[in-house]
UniProtKB/TrEMBL annotation:
Protein name stated in the entry: Uncharacterized protein
Domain of life: Bacteria
Amino acid sequence: MLKLTYTENGFQLERLAQFLEDWVTARVILSLRAGWHICVEPSTASFLLPADLPGVDRLEIEAQREDSEIISVCACDAEYVEIGLRGNWVSAGTEKDEGVFVVTLSDRTEFFLFKLWQESQIAASCVSE
């Protein structure tokens, strides 16, 4: 399962070895016990990866092997590709910009997408230094 945590400063991507249903159930139980509001709804999320990142072309092939309704890879411009995902949004309310997006893909695609995202973060931090 991939977990994208969206905050006001950006997002963080994690790969969890947990079933989506188990993770959502635990989150709902925690919210009920703590008295927090929680909203879980089907949604989409997207983020950009550099188009020249080694392996992006392979990700496009992996995405075609997946259910086309779960992941898409689209060229935005000469510099970036957009990764679109269909999963579930978990937040404190329906109008919240901060929250967690979770999606389940094949292990291979999840691992590969996570590695590409990590590499893009390393490349971005090297450029900013």
